[in-house]
């Protein structure tokens, strides 16, 4: 038996495995638990950082969304900023300059939509413009009832293809809204 003295048999390997396996598994398991603990700590820091980051972002978004109405508080992004009002007014005047009822209706739709967006920006709640106007206190606009009537009239005009709109009537309704915009700007 000369060459097989130092050879491990299957039985020897089995005995070695039963002795070494628990130690190996225990060390592997402890390493795994340590890794899970470290990963957990890292994830906690990441989540805390994300929560703080999102809170700051939401605060900034809320601050931007709040509009301070009044001459000193109007931001450049606001619809009540003179540049935006002038741009909208220019667009409407271009529509009115055409001698075409369809362009006049487009001008009415434009001013009606703009006024609605101003009310939303300021923070008046409601499902539609008429609901927002009904919830608006009279102190905000001296011509509130006139604006309500004008909005209803514009809705009728835009839904009636046979309505014979005049340029003067269009300009009159636009001036009602412009007066309201100027008053809201001064709040």
Write the element-wise H/E pattern from the N-terminal end onward: HHHHHH
- Portion in beta strands: under 5%
- Assembly category: single chain
Radius of gyration: 37 Å
Q: Total number of helical segments?
A: 6
Shape estimate: rod-shaped
Helix percent band? over 70%
Tally of separate domains: 2
Overall mean pLDDT = 82
What are the low-pLDDT stretches, counting only 5+ consecutive residues below 50?
64-73
Structural account:
There is one protein chain. The protein is mainly α and 187 residues long. The chain has two domains: 65 residues; 104 residues, no CATH class. Helix content is 73%, strand content 0%. It contains six helices and no strands. Helix 3 runs parallel beside helix 6, helix 4 packs antiparallel against helix 5 and helix 5 crosses helix 6. About 5% of the residues have low confidence.
Structure in a nutshell:
The chain is mainly alpha-helical and 187 residues long.
Keywords:
single chain; 187 residues; mainly alpha; 2 domains; 6 helices; rod-shaped
């Amino acid at each position: 038996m000369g060459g097989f003295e130092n050879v491990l048999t299957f039985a020897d390997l089995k005995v070695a495995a039963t002795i070494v396996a628990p130690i190996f598994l225990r060390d592997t398991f402890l390493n795994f638990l340590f890794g899970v603990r470290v990963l957990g700590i890292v994830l906690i820091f990441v989540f805390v950082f994300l929560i703080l980051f999102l809170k700051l972002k939401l605060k900034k978004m809320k601050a931007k969304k709040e509009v301070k109405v009044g001459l000193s508080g109007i931001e450049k992004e606001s619809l009540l900023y003179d540049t935006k009002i002038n741009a909208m007014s220019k667009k409407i005047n271009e529509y009115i300059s055409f001698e075409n009822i369809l362009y006049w209706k487009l001008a009415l739709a434009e001013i009606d939509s703009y006024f609605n967006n101003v009310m939303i920006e300021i923070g008046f709640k409601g499902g539609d413009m008429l609901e927002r106007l009904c919830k608006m206190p009279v102190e905000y606009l001296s011509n509130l009832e006139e604006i309500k009537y004008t909005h209803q009239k514009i809705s009728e005009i835009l839904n009636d293809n046979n309505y014979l709109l005049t340029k003067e009537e269009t300009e009159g309704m636009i001036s009602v809204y412009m007066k309201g915009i100027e008053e809201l700007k001064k709040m």
